[in-house]
Specification:
Chain A is mainly α and 67 residues long. In chain A, 60% of the residues lie in helices and 6% in strands. In chain B, strand 9, helix 7 and strand 10 form a beta-alpha-beta unit. The longest helix of chain B is centred in the C-terminal third of the chain and has 68 residues. Classes of the chains: A mainly alpha (67), B alpha/beta (458).
């Protein structure tokens, strides 16, 4: 939903998915919208999964100013 | 400052070979006997000299460690006791801690307590003794009891400043999905490995390590700068140290460390020692967990659970849309059936039939009604006719009766018997008093009238 150029964070994607699920459950949502929401939801789920699968642990040591 | 009294004989005083250290005293003569000399001091002079001697940097602002003995509680609020060293170099010195210095002492003084005191040596002329004036007292840093007391002292100080405990309203939840994690711990040791293992299993993400010594002298400054170096770089910080003795973990009670944790802009999870260990840092942190592994579990969600949930979401979303679509299809089929032309024809036929039936019902009902009304009319006509006839007969009878009556009352009828009606000026005359002579009268008889003139009245 965000118009930002930057990739949404996992948290933002989850928040959007939650909103999509809510709208899909709403009987007042137009069917055209429901189909679009479904497509968007599937894409987001795919993104989240990719994010989780690609997540990598790295350890960087932070130099300390006063030592 | 030399004594003013003169004596003939001088008392010999010996302070050993070190004459330099005795420069304030007068020269001494052997076997001088009772000689009054200028060099003889009064006691107060002597005590004054002693006070001057002890007032030197060597004996001022010094820290002495020892055990408290001979503590005498005193109603005045001043503390009197001795500081003693046991063993081969047994030694003792009287001490006093004035009320104003002792008022904020965070622990109670008692015999046997190992303390380190800061203050100065002074000579008390009236009592004739050297004593140590204590300005500040802390539990001696060696020994668990001392450390425990120091911890209590720090706790009171930090509580007094409002640094601990962290108020409930200022406890921050770590983000559910952090982008990275800061870890303050030793570079070596199992703690970092434990955290790494848990995070790589649950939700791998970048770890920023600010390594520091976590015990020993000066460790507090390392921990403080480690915490500061992670500010603005991470979403959450774990301050961790593996299990150890009370002394090993002691640095996490240090006010500098506790204050740095309390002032952190980033939420801090404290994972120091084992579950049973509590350091003052725990009270300043946003959350306290029993082990470093638990800290890692606290700061990241479990990837497996998230993936499972995503799959569930996918299925649920799919099912929802499928359900919506099938409901819509059903809806369309229903609509289609409803707009079917045959269905319309059938409906029209049904409507025709209904109309015809209604028409028939109306017709039959109308005829029945008309028949009934006609019968009624006929009855009414008969009744009216009969009634009218009777009415006419009755009326005729009544008329005849009335006629008889009217005829019987005819004012002219008696005239037939020979009576006459007398009129004067069209008025019936009933008395002679109404008549005068020569009046013109009309006499009515049964069959005609006579006009006459009155001749006389009798």
């Amino acid at each position: 939903m965000t118009e930002k150029e930057t990739e949404p964070t996992y948290e933002e994607m989850i928040a959007e998915l939650r909103e999509i699920a809510k709208q899909l459950d709403d009987p007042n949502t137009a069917i055209e919208d429901a189909v679009k929401l479904h497509q968007r939801g599937m894409a987001l789920i795919q993104k989240c999964e990719t994010f989780l699968q690609k997540a990598e642990l790295t350890i960087t040591e932070v130099p300390q100013s006063s030592e | 400052m030399a004594g003013k009294k003169r004596v003939t004989r001088q008392k010999t005083l010996s302070f050993g070979d070190d004459e330099g250290s005795l420069s304030l005293l007068s020269p001494i003569q052997e076997n001088s006997g009772l000689v009054i000399s200028d060099n003889i001091l009064s006691v107060s002079d002597l005590t004054k000299r002693i006070r001057d001697v002890v007032d030197c940097p060597l004996l001022t602002d010094i820290i002495v460690k020892g055990e408290i003995t001979g503590y005498r509680p005193n109603g005045s609020g001043h503390l009197y006791f001795s500081l003693t060293e046991q063993g081969d170099n047994a030694a003792s010195i009287s001490c006093v801690m004035w009320k104003y210095s002792a008022k904020n002492l965070p622990f109670s003084v008692k015999d046997g307590l190992l303390v380190q005191v800061t203050g100065l040596v002074d000579f008390y002329p009236a009592g004739g003794r050297l004593q140590f004036i204590v300005k500040k007292m802390e539990p001696a840093l060696s020994g668990k009891t001392g450390l425990f007391l120091l911890k209590e002292q720090w706790r009171k100080e930090l509580e007094g400043k409002g640094i601990i405990p962290r108020p409930q309203a200022e406890i921050r939840d770590p983000p559910i999905f952090p982008k990275n994690i800061g870890v303050v711990t030793s570079k070596t040791g199992s703690v970092l490995q434990d955290i790494k293992n848990v995070i790589s299993r649950r939700y791998p993400l970048p770890i920023l390590l600010a390594s520091t010594a976590v015990q020993g002298d000066g460790a507090e400054s390392g921990i403080v700068s480690a915490i500061q170096s992670l500010q603005d770089k991470v979403d959450v910080i774990i301050v961790a140290r593996g299990g150890g003795s009370f002394e090993d973990l002691f640095v996490f009670n240090h006010p500098d460390v506790v204050t740095a944790i309390r002032n952190s802009k980033v939420p801090i999870i404290s994972a120091i020692g084992h579950e049973t260990d509590t350091t003052l840092s725990d009270f300043a942190a946003d959350r306290r967990v029993p082990t470093p592994s638990a800290a890692a579990e606290t700061v990241v969600p479990d990837r497996a659970v998230l993936l499972e949930k995503l799959e569930k979401d996918r299925r649920s979303m799919h099912d929802t849309v499928m359900w919506i679509l099938s409901a819509e299809q059903k809806n369309i089929a229903d609509l289609k059936r409803r707009v079917d032309p045959n269905r319309l024809t059938r409906k029209l036929e049904l409507m025709h039939q209904q109309t015809a039936e209604l028409e028939e019902r109306i017709r039959t009902a109308s005829i029945r009604r008309i028949t009934v009304e006609r019968g009624n009319c006929r009855n009414w006509a008969a009744m009216i006719q009969k009634g009218a006839k009777n009415k006419i007969t009755n009326a005729r009878l009544a008329f005849l009766t009335q006629k008889e009556i009217i005829l019987g009352r005819d004012p002219y009828k008696p005239l037939e018997l020979g009576y006459a009606l007398v009129w004067k000026d069209n008025v019936v005359v009933r008395s002679v008093k109404k008549i005068a002579e020569d009046d013109r009268l009309t006499l009515r008889l049964a069959d005609g009238e006579v006009i006459t003139i009155v001749e006389s009245i009798k």
